[in-house]
Write the structure tokens for this entry.
Amino acid sequence: MYMNKEELEKIKKKALEEHIPIIMDDTLSVIEKTLKGKKVYSFLEIGTAVGYSAMCFSELLSENGKIDTIERDVERVAEARKNIKKVGVEDKINVLEGDAVEILPTLNNKYDVVFIDAAKGKYPFFLKEALRMIKTDGIIFADNILYKGYVMSDYNKHKQRTAVRNLREYIKEISENPNLETEILEVGDGLAISKVK
Ligand code: SAH
Ligand code: MG
């Protein structure tokens, strides 16, 4: 299907101007490399924002592959749907509107890839749901896992304390889970890659 890359660039630029935390170029290229040669028929994203990363990921799908992406902010959902149409990838991306904490338990699909990029305080919950739906040989990515370096420092006296605690909990769980092969990269704001054995 034809994808309007020029339109995608405009959307990226606008998102950056509006300080919407879209995926960083380096992070995207690590994900592209990691998924190279892998069949991706089903992709779950938690945290759509305006659809930028989902549209980038849509290029990595195998034929007839689909992305489900969840966003709770009503205005961003509308913007994402509009953007996805403009870029011409509406056949590949399904935006689910609502809080992922409520939506995830209602999903019963099997996914080749899960990309976690939403409320940091909810990462352990998102992981539990991702593990329930990920296929064997699937890959779970978590963005912003090092959160500006707070996660690996002794930093713990701030309003970000709950986020930091939950990100550390996420790292502990993926590291200790014998069914996962995990890597944590300092790319972007930190990216965790967990392959399901
Ligand atoms: N993946 C996007 C950026 C996502 S930014 C990209 O790279 O282009 C994180 C988004 O997650 C925000 O838009 C925020 O509204 C949304 N979000 C945060 N917590 C959420 C939750 N519990 N459920 C659904 N969306 C959530
Ligand atoms: Mg992010």
